[in-house]
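Hi team,

As requested, here is the filled-out complex form for the S-adenosylmethionine run. I kept the field names the same as last time so the parser does not choke. Let me know if anything looks off before we queue the next batch.

— J.
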Amino acid sequence: MPKKTTIIYKTKKKHPLKIKEATAIYTADKLDIAHTRACDCGPTHINCLTAKEWLKSQLGVWQFFYEKRDIRDKTLHPATFPINLVKKCIELFTHKGELVVDPFVGSGTTLIAANDLGRNAVGFDLNEKYSALCNQRLDGLLNLYNTKQIAVRDDAINIDQYSEPDSISLLVTSPPYANLLNRQRKNKSRRGSERNNEQFLKVEQYSQNERDLGTMPIEEYQQEMAQIYKRLLPLLKPKGHCIINVPDMWWDNRRITIHIAVVEALRSVGYELRNTIIWDRTNIVNRIGIFGWPSNYITMGVTFEYLLDFWRPPVIQPINI
Ligand SMILES: C[S@@+](CC[C@H](N)C(=O)[O-])C[C@H]1O[C@@H](n2cnc3c(N)ncnc32)[C@H](O)[C@@H]1O
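And here is what came back:
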């Protein structure tokens, strides 16, 4: 486990936004966790799927249902993705026994999915309450495949302190959506009296910690994502995939294109975008309110999100930040 994880923050004076760059000054011990295959798949196979299972995953639009184990109570965690979504990513891009890392693990969905599928996994979260929630959920799991799932309370900028280069087969996460949840919830996507539910006018934000990406304006968020993923790239195996789940959102009648910010950030530090998958959420939303009619056409964020699939190119190109 880590010796010390304190970091200092230096203001980058030359940057117009005065972005704070985190610099690790203490080292943490590398985690004792396996990352090699525990299957007998052929050396060129990128996963353990059969041809039939592979065929089903070729569609670029995915749908999922939440299951009972998923956390839907927003007082426990305000923004979780379904266990089945992460399972599909893990099955597509890893073999049994390999290592999955979630830099923004929240309630621990990725760790549960990894345990189900016999993959080792580590999840990081800045907030103590969420790493505690992860540990509580992990305590209840059986270890059928002799793998480990570990929740670490730390800033994602420090992950290179914990993992070896070329050890991670898949980075998968749903990061904060810049500061777009850091405001009172108006429930505009809800219909009629359903707007006034228990979430109405609540701020569903993880924390007000200045290192929490959910407090940062979109430009600063983009810079910070670039810094975090720049440090993660050498930890990924060559051709290892990196999946990021984000929606776009509306703010004062302007479209905030979080997915574009993320694509630009990751490309700027050497990742290559391989696939854009749409998570079609229409099967899990109902009774949507009317937005914009008849004068302003607006597509609703609750009905779909992006799954941006990058990889570490076989040869890392020079980066420009
Ligand atoms: C969208 S949530 C992830 C939810 C997760 N996919 C789940 O199913 O529970 C994003 C998480 O990022 C965490 N976070 C924000 N800034 C962070 C940082 N700098 N380092 C690590 N975690 C951070 C927040 O505490 C929050 O739990």
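Two things worth flagging: The chain has one domain: 7-311. DSSP finds six helices and twelve strands in the chain.

Thanks,
J.
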